[in-house]
Every structure is written in C-alpha cells, then in structure tokens.
Queue: 2 jobs
Job 1
Amino acid sequence: PRGASARVRCHCLLCSLAVAAFDISLHGGQVISWRNERGEELLFTSSKAIFKPPKAMRGGIPICFPQFGKCGGLEQHGFARNKIWSIERDPPALKTDDNDGKVSVDLLLKPSDDDLKCWPHCFEFRLKVSLSIDGDLTMISRIRNINGKAFSFSIAYHTYLSVSDISEVRIEGLETLDYLDNLHQRERFTEQGDAITFETEVDRIYLSAPSVIAVLDHEKKRTFIIKKGGLPDVVVWNPWEKKAKSMADLGDDEYKQMLCVDAAAIERSITLKPGEEWTGRLELSEVASSYCSDQ
Ligand code: BG6
C-alpha cells in the first residue's frame, strides 16, 4: 500500500474466528489499533482524531523521534510521527529475533531533504511490529547512523492505553522514582505515593524506571503489562479536563478513557557514532486482573 492513509492489518492466520490483531498506519509508522482475541480494542483513539498529515492521529502509538516534547528545536515530539514510512520486505535480520508463531510487519523511515534541513543527520529507522499468538504486541526500533558524524536523539513510544475510567486506574512500578515534571519546566521531583493514581493533569517523565511496569484498570478487570528494553524512562500523561477542552482533536470528556504510558529515552539522549545502530524494544500484553492477583 502507498500513501498517507495506507494501513496494514496483521492477525493470526491459524484461526478464522475472532483473533488478536493490530493495524498500523504508514503515516507515522503509528500503530492505530491493537485488539485482543475477544476483539476488544486495547488502545485509545479519540472520536475527534484526524487521520491525515500533517499531525499524528490522537491515539494509538505515535513514535516521538528524534526529540520528545519541544526542547530540541524541532516540531513537538519530532518529525517521525508525521512522515510517511515505507514497508520493508526484506529487512536486515535482528540479532535477537524470535519470530515463533508471530505475525509482523517491517517499516522503514529515511529522512527526506526537508527533514535534513531541520535535522542534518542521515539515519535509517527500522520498526518491526509483531503480534504473538497470545496477542502480545512487540515493537522493536532500530536506528542506524549512516552519517559521517555522530548524532544524538530522544525517542518515545507514545502509547495511548484505553481505560474504563482514569479515576479507577493505577500504575505500579514507578513508586519512589525521580521524575521530571513537564508541568513545572521539567523540574525534578521524587515520587512519594505507593502507586500512581489520577485526580488531576499529569505530565511526567519517570527516570530509570524498571523494565516491567503494570497499569491496572479495576473496572475492566484488566492489567496492561509494559516491558521495555533500551528505554530507561517512562512518560505518564493525562491532560485532564481543562487541557482536554483546549485540544481540537480530543473530546471534552475523553481524557477519562485514555492514559498515555510511554517507554522512552529522554533524560539522557542516545548518541550514535557513524555506522552504529541502537535498538529499543517495547512489549505490551494484557492480562485479566484475576490472573495478576493470583501471581
Ligand atoms: C505528552 C507530553 O507526552 O504528549 C505532553 O508530555 C503533550 O506535554 C502530549 O501535551 C501530547 O502532545 P501532542 O503533540 O501529541 O498534542
């Protein structure tokens, strides 16, 4: 498929009944849907989302690269989420690839001449998105420096989880960590609570987070398990009522049904020398809460 609106749908071929699946858009290399084997959507998409450039669709998993936020002189969250990626039929093999029973798609982004004017670094960004038979979604990013000079970047998988009601949700795994508060010019604080719960706008970058964190949704009796590799930080964002009302592509009350939890590398940017490649990995799974409490 070609063009901004092209999407790839992947689902397990072993069974023709309802199966786990994901859809990915070539606009932004953005996963725009991830469904479990019961056909339930696990990612949030705004009813006001706009599915065409020049902005990323509000929902799914936009990729923030080569910067997160506005701090690097580029457009907010970098240009990758606003570019048209291509499908790569025969990508170089991944060293630690485990394709057993998975369906996957490989995308590639290379900078255009316009990108090079605002960020003068030649790179190849390979994204492999896979779905296991159990419905786990894995995203592996490989970024290679094909420049004559070193460059540095930040990256985040800006994951919009679908939740029943933000007031019923908590995150476990970020307790006692330091975080940079985007609502206070990235001032550094230390998390004091037992688990993260929500009763107001939150926009934080938790630093050196563990490789596994959990997002528990009591009402839906669902837990998302987020596993990450090569991505030390975790962004937690919910705009809450006032900011939601100011956003044209988010419904006034939709902040209640979404929570962004991003595996990311932000505080310390990643530097690649000429010829070097970096790999970052995100794995998302969904388990019933009863299963979790039995562990
Ligand atoms: C979050 C940032 O990750 O993304 C917020 O921390 C920002 O500050 C939000 O508002 C949404 O950004 P955008 O550019 O997709 O509207």
Job 2
Amino acid sequence: MQPYTADGLKDEIARRLQVDKGQKLEEASPKDVYYALASIVHGEIMPSWNKTQQKYKDKKAKQVYYLSMEFLIGSLIKSNLLNCGMLNQTIEALRKMGFHPEEIFAQEQDAALGNGGLGRLAACFLDSLSSLDYPGHGHGIRYRYGLFEQRIIHGNQVELPDYWLKDAYPWENRKEEEAILIHFRGEVHMFKKNDGSLEFKHENTDKVMAVPYDIPVVGYQNSTVNTLRLWSAEPYFPPEENEGQEDDFYHDLEHQHSIEQITGFLYPDDSNIEGKELRLKQQYFLVSSSIQNIIRQFKENYQLPLSRLPEKVVIQINDTHPSLGIPEMMRVLMDEENLSWDAAWKVTTGAFAYTNHTTLSEALETWPVEMTEGLLPRIYMIIHEINERFCRDLWFNHKEKREEIPQLAVIADGRVHMARLAIVGSFSVNGVARIHTEILKNQEMSGFYSLYPKKFNNKTNGITHRRWLLQANPGLAGLITDVIGPNWIRRPKQLISLMKYTKDRPLLEKFASAKQQNKQALANFIHQRTGIAVDPHSIFDVQIKRLHEYKRQLLNIFHVIYLYNELKDNPQLDVVPRTFIFGAKAAPSYYLAKEIIKLINTVASIVNYDKDVKDKLKVIFLENYNVSLAEKIIPAADISEQISTASKEASGTGNMKMMMNGALTIGTMDGANIEIHDLVGDDNMFIFGLSAEQVMDYYRHGGYSATDIYNTDDRVKRILDQLKLGEFGSQEIEFKDIYYNILSHNDPYFVLKDFEPYMEAHEIVERTYRDTYSWLQKSVTNIAYSGKFSSDHTIQQYATGIWNLKQFKEKE
Ligand code: 26M
C-alpha cells in the first residue's frame, strides 16, 4: 500500500466527488465525503487483498476458519485507515478541507452483528490474525438487522430496529458467482450400492441460495488482508423455471420473503436461550454455506485427497452455535464425496475445535429432536449415528462411565445437546480464562474431561490493542510512544517498559493530563447527549456491558443509592465527587434486566437534580451502548466495574480494555479479573467479595439467608424498603419485583452477601484516589501489564496450541 500525503488525499477526495457525484467539495455533505474516503481506502486495500489470497493459494498455506454467528465489528473506517497507514494524513486532509474528522468517521453505521463479548471477541481475533500474518478468515451471517437500537423513554428501554444497510455498506463485495445451495426439510431415501454400502439421497428439499459478501480484514501495516465472509439468504431459481410463472407471483413473493427471513435479524439474546426454529435455520444456514465453501476451496486449491484436509484446514467454532458444522461436514464427505463413515469421522474430528464461552446452564443450547429432524432430516440421522457410536463406545470401552451415559449422550430427554456434540466431534475444547477452563474441567464438563483429558485447554481472551488503545485513545498512545518508543505497537508486551517510569512524577503528570483530556471529551459528549453537566474532575466510575443479573449492575446501583442516602443525611459529608456511568442493553424479553435499567434511570433522575448532592454525585445512563460508544467511554474511565458473582463471568473483555486505558479495576475474583490480579496484585486493583469456591459451596449446600442480611444491615434494609415503597420516582414507579426477587428468591446472585465488602472496597477506592500520585502509579502499572491481554497474544496461543498454524510472512 502506497500511502497518500494529506494534500494528495484531499485532491483525491475532491476528484472522486466530482467524478462519481458531479459534486464540488463545497457542496459535499459529511456523508458524501465519508463515501469518497471509504472508496479510496477500499481501492488501496483491493490489491493487497488479491495478493494475499493468491499467495495462500500458491503456497498451499494451512488456513483457519473462525465460524461464528456473531461478528461485532463496529465501525471500520478508522481501523482500516490506521492499518493502511493513512489515518494521520486523513485527519490532516479532512481538517484542511474544513471538516471535523470524527464527524466524517461517524457517518459509518456500526455493524452491530453481535450481542456482546462473544461477538466482539470474534472481531478482535480477526484483527489479530491479519496483523500477525496468519491465514485466517471469519465466516458469519449478513443480518439485515443488527442488534436493536436502544432508546430510553421515561426510564424504560425501548427497542428500535437497526437497519444498518439502509445506506450502502462500502466495505462489502457481493460474490454471486460463489453462491452455494442449502437444503432444508425434504425426505431422505436410502439405497444399497453395488458394493453393499448404503447411499443416502436427500430429496424434495426447500432450497435456499447462500450468497457471500466479503469484507476485507486489514492487518496492521503489513499488506496482509484476510476475509470476513458473511452469508446472505436469497431465493433459489432453478435454471429451467426462469420464465413464465406469473400465476404463482404472490406465492413466490411469500416464499421469497420467508427465505430472506433466514438472514433477517440477529437474535438479541446472549444468555437465556429460546428454542426458536428460525434460529436453528440460521445456524444450519451458516454452517452449511461455510463447510461446503471450505471443502470446495480445499479441492480447488490443494489437489490433495480429502483425507488430508486437516493438514490444511482447521475450523474453530465460536460457542456451540455453529456445532451443526460437525454433522454437516460428515454429510458432505459421505454423501457427496463418498468417504466411509470412519474416514469422514477422522477428517471431521481432525478439523473441528470448539470454544466454550459460558457455564450458565440457561445458556447451554439444546434443540428438540422433532424440530431438528423435521428441519434437517439428513443431519439428524448423522447426529443420531454419532450418538449411537459414542454411547456404544462408552458402554463397551469405558465401563466406569455406564451410569453417566444419560448425562453424556448427545441425544437425551428428547433433545440434541449441542455442547456434547461439539465436544465429541472436536479435537480441542477450550475455555476463555483460566478459572473458566478449570470450572469446565472439574465441574460442568468433568464427565467429558475424564474421558478426553487431552482435548481440554485454556485460551484466555484478549482484545486488539490497536483499536482499543492506539485508535480509541491517541493521546495516551502517543504519550506511551514518546516514553518507550513505538515498538509496543507491534509487540504489546513491551508496554511493560512503562514500569521503569512509575516513580517519574513529571511523567505521571502527563499521564494524568491525557486521562483528563479524555474525561473532558466524555463530559462534553454526555452534556450534548443528556444535557447533564458532569464534573470532569470527579471519579469516572464505569460499568459497560450487557445487562444481566449475574453481572450485578444491581450491586453497583445499590452502592449509588447508599451514597445518596449518606449525602442526604449529611450534605456536608467530605466525599470525592463521583460520576457513575452505565451503558447496557437488556435482552428484549428479559423482564428483570429491564427493571434494573429502569431503576438505574430512575435513580439518575433523582440524584442528578437533587441540590443536596449537587457536585458530589451524578449518575449517567448512556443509551444505545455499542462499539462506537465504548470507544468514547473507555479512554475516560478511572474505575472499571467488574463485579460479577464469582464463577459466573467466563472471562470478560471490557475489564482488559479499561485496564489498557489506565483504569483501576474494582472486581470479584472471577473470569480474567483473576489473571489481571496475577499481574498487578492487590496493590493495583480492588478485589472484594465471595470467591468462586464459596459461591459454588453455597449453591451445593443451599445458600445463605438474604433475609438475615436485610434484617441486620440497616443500609441494606433502607435501600430495599425504598425500592418496595416506591421512594424512587412516584408511587407508580416502584421496584417491587427487584425487591421480591432478592428476598423471596433468596438473592441468587449474592448481591446482599457481597454488599458490605463492596462498600468497603469503594471506600478504599476513594482513599486511594485522594492520593493522586499513588493513583497514577497504579494506573500506569495497569497499562504496563495490559500487553498480555492483547488478542495478538491470544491468537499466538491458538495458532501454536490448537491450530498448528504458521505465520505467513513472505516478502515480495
Ligand atoms: C444463543 C442462542 C440463541 C440466541 C442467542 C444465543 C447466544 C448469543 C450470544 C448465547 C450466548 C451469547 O454470548 C455469550 C457471551 O457473550 N459470552 C461471553 O463471552 C465473552 C467472550 O468469551 C466472555 O468474555 C464473557 O465472559 C462471556 O459472558
């Protein structure tokens, strides 16, 4: 890629506007300029993209395919500019043209093709694969509607459709010539072949075309461009039926509509799984397109027998959502490529690897047998056979497991258990943080662990430091480069060199001023969005993540209410001013989560306008939390709230993003918080509350008494009574359901149990913040150790530990 100068870029934007739209620069809107810019960048990417793919072909490189129902890529304009080495010139050019660069970049609609952590992880992994020159691609779904847009109206979450493709999406290329046919329903007929083996024919199926749209994944200034291939469902027109069917016009329209539904929208749940048939259709649509595509490319490019596919192809499945890929690969290999069961099984289990992202039992996928069999009759037959062989193996070869068969079987209780299918059909099973993998091995999946101890491994999550530090926080990134040089950008672990400077007071002042600028920018943004003026010198205390009971936003807002009560009792109280910032979407059908959003907003509307607490306490709920909003909030955070009930948060990745931007974590010993703690220790973060062992012990032995705490802790009683009596808001707005959920259901997420230690931890936060110098030391220490959480490190571990993949560094 040959970068432009700022002036060259300016001229080129003007030229494109003229040629493409007949526009003069003065007439161009920010959107026009954005499209002109995006088309220039796309043009820059194109040659490297072609070259990279050609090289992989020529050198017959081993490739990894990351299959995921979600890729939460957010906006690409800035990261593509950064990775192409054009960001600084572009900013200069846009300024010279009289535009605010951020206003131009903001024209791009976020691609919100994911719910939260799992989808964002997939996007970070793609960035690292390309930046490290690994041949690795994503396969996903091109949802016409992404995750809903959230509005807060009278404190309530309201969902609006996210029609992100309203304007053309400049990064995608439609590849109609590579479309693939997908079959649903129909009947399976069995024939005996001459050699005595059986042949299966799947007939009278409903046919759907899968059309790929390719998005380039640009590596950081290295000319590597991989592909994110998103599949879109379209009606299939068989060649002979192309003309003269007017009488069926309306029937055809209806049919067309039902097909396009398959890739119509992203399911907005990230925990409680509803077994909707359309979701199962989406999953099979993704894996059938991807697997057929992978096998087709393997045959075209490698000239090797299919038995050798695992030498050249590895398929990582992001949770169980793509686990039908396992029987789908069996189907293609046997029914279309004539491999025997044993040969096909060897290839399949040599190619698939599975990542688990949760131990919450509500989130473990199962599908009803009738639904699976009706929609996917041939796939169901194969799953059935996988199950038979697996159970037979247990019965005859693992006698000690006979009693456990009902808990291990892939088909049990009339349902297909997707995690069991994924474990049986993969050569690798990994968790996403050390404690999570240990819980999988020793609790949730212990039956499988003792059967296949070698399959299980840990790969702690990571985040791309390019997007989350270099791009989102240029002030801090520039300062770091001034201090330790630019090598950390390619080798993020070198951030550790910052540890040499933690006693350098003048330098710490500079870190403070970088943070202060980001806080000022966020304060301005908050003011513009909400009309509320927050004190940019207050502690910015941030909790941004999906709303879920286990993530305990409730504990956070209880702390806020406690502080408010204290200040009401004693307005002169000497406290460090605090701004609590929340961002969270609730699944539309998750009632209690929506009540908690309403509570946060109700508390905000009282606290923010109460003169008694003026300047000391503010509560901000920023609506429509998404990737772009995260990029604004994270650089400004002082405190990162990571307060899940221990054992429940598989890893967390927001914790890593805020650490990398110099925030201090207040958190439980859960997920990756434990690994943050390994690095920075008690001195540099605020750990509180029950451990995972204690939580699991309580679950085993019947819990603790929430009522006891209610009766003995006045602070707790006062808060809960305020909820019940409708003291927040009017009589109409009361929070009885939250009250009863805690007291009648005995506080399943230990909010009351952890209340006291959480309050104490916050007191320590406040004391620590008062000592500016020591706070800054801790902040810089966090940045210094955060390099280990770069997804580059994570991807290296996947590449060497699971994929056996080589970096493809070949200079032209
Ligand atoms: C499944 C079926 C139907 C509808 C939705 C789903 C579904 C979608 C997303 C279920 C779970 C989903 O995501 C779970 C998730 O995001 N887990 C998070 O994964 C992160 C990356 O590994 C971890 O950091 C988080 O701790 C974990 O909660």
